[in-house]
Design a protein that fits this description.
This protein is an alpha+beta fold and about 375 residues long. It has helices at about 1-15, 35-50, 70-80, 85-95, 125-130, 165-180, 235-255, 260-275, 280, 290-305, 310-330, 355-360, 360-370, and strands spanning about 55-60, 100, 105, 105-110, 110-115, 145-150, 150-160, 190-195, 205-210, 210, 215, 220, 225. A hairpin with a 2-residue loop joins β6 (about 145-150) and β7. α3 (about 70-80) packs antiparallel against α4, α7 (about 235-255) packs parallel to α10 (about 290-305) and α8 (about 260-275) runs antiparallel to α10.
Length: about 375
């Protein structure tokens, strides 16, 4: 069954991809988690370049998201996305009249018939939820609604203290969820405010329905810790802690006199992968001190293995060029229009920035890297 689900997954993706919300990043070709975070940061940082502006970011949490899908509603939404009727009927049948029981120790409950939601662990569940929420979009240019499967983020770009569009969109989200059998988890839905004004006035808390949304100073957004001052020390400290824990295993391997090649492979997959986690998001804006902390782990690994390893700067350069290249090659990518070719066709137009925090974000940095001749060592 899993193999058939994977075939259906590929089939449905090919049909629906051209019709999906551009700001839905899950299960899309040439799009990644990093793209979602980088574009969100670009919206925020570009807006904060304007005097007197600030941003409110709402990280939405759904209660048992995949378990609330209504098959009949999903079938209508799939039809609107040009999915063939036979495929729609198969999915409806797949989600309907499922038998389920609960096991606690040696005790098993009586079976119940379920016709709501998508099965836990189902290969199709994240894609079906993405299609189910495809029509949930923003109507205002000053409010961005980004989605990665069931991770939904509303970004309010506030100018002159006017929050009416942002609050209207959050109220509309509550209404849309009610109409589509989705329940917002107000306790886990939080808001973060990025405000660099010199004398900001106290902001009125946001409410969802009858619940006041908590305000936080940092949040783990799609695996990357973002703080309200848009600095990266907390995220980098988290990566360093994980990498240092894994260095123990590298030292243990040396005790068993493993070949250098095997140790390098272990380092690349287990330690380097942590150091480079979402590196295109934070590296350019990291402080020299934090970069040195990360590089020290690489030096320690070099001493253990006994050979040179790629520096963090080289790893960043290769990854940002590869990521930018994929965006440039995909006209449907929401970040594609940010890479504008100059009339010569050999370079890209630099993105205008007013602050270093914007200049050091992904899109301006990627443009600079792509315009810089690459030296092959």
């Amino acid at each position: 069954m899993k193999s058939f689900e994977r075939l259906m997954l590929s089939h449905i993706k090919d049909i629906t991809d051209p019709h999906l919300d551009p700001l839905q990043f899950a299960y899309r070709s040439n799009r990644s988690v990093d793209d979602a975070v980088n574009l969100a940061l670009h919206f925020i940082l570009q807006h904060l370049d304007s005097p007197g502006s600030y941003a409110r970011i709402l990280f939405v949490d759904f209660s048992s998201a995949f378990n609330t899908i209504i098959p009949a509603l999903l079938q209508d939404k799939l039809s609107q996305l040009n999915v063939p009727d036979s495929t729609c009927r198969w999915i409806t049948d797949f989600l309907s009249d499922r038998k389920q029981h609960v096991k606690l120790g040696k005790t098993i409950s009586a079976p119940r018939t379920i016709s709501t939601g998508s099965p836990q662990g189902c290969v199709l569940s994240p894609l079906l939820f993405s299609l189910y929420t495809n029509s949930c979009t923003s109507s205002h240019q000053s409010v961005k609604l980004l989605k990665f499967a069931d991770d939904t983020t509303i970004i309010g770009l506030i100018a002159d203290g006017d929050e009416s569009d942002y609050r209207w969109e959050t109220d509309r989200l509550v209404s849309w969820c009610s109409q589509n059998n989705l329940e917002l988890n107000a306790l886990k839905t939080v808001e973060m405010i990025a405000d660099f004004r010199k004398n900001p006035a106290p902001l009125t808390p946001l409410t969802l329905g009858d619940s006041t949304v908590s305000s936080v100073e940092y949040f783990c957004f799609l695996g990357t810790i973002i703080t309200q001052d848009l600095k990266w020390e907390l995220n980098i400290s988290s990566l360093i802690k994980k990498a240092q824990q894994r260095m123990y295993f590298l030292r243990q391997l040396r005790k068993f006199s493993l070949p250098t090649k095997m140790m390098v492979n272990f380092y690349s997959s287990i330690i380097q992968s942590i150091l480079c986690s979402s590196i295109t998001i934070w590296y350019a804006a990291a402080t020299a001190k934090d970069k040195a902390r990360l590089q020290r782990i690489i030096h320690s690994a070099e001493k253990v293995i006994g050979c040179n390893l790629p520096s963090l700067q080289d790893l960043y350069a290769s990854r940002i060029l590869r990521r930018a290249g994929k965006i440039v090659a995909d006209p449907s990518h929401p970040g594609h229009k940010l890479f504008q070719s100059l009339p010569s066709g050999r370079r890209f137009r630099s993105i205008r920035t007013r602050t270093s925090r914007h200049k050091n974000s992904f899109f301006p940095s990627a443009t600079i890297h792509m315009n810089t001749p690459q030296v092959t060592h």
